[in-house]
Amino acid sequence: MTIPNGEPLIFAEWGYLDAGKFQRRDFQYQDLTKRAAFGEDTLFASMEMDEIFTPDASFPPMTVAQIAAKEEK
Known about the structure:
Largest sheet: 4 strands, antiparallel
Order of helices and strands: EEHHEEH
Mean pLDDT: 81
Shape: flat
Number of helices: 3
């Protein structure tokens, strides 16, 4: 669950917010694999996933043009 140098493996999630805006949130792979442990017959079944798993980083909402402009730099 790490990259060769030992740092955690990070996955980016891009969510569409509305009005042409997207937001990126980064999660560690080891945290995402923990979701399987929270099934319907557990103490945490009534909790929402966003209550259990929080992103390591959350970026401000941006339009596609703003995302493209960041890549050009």
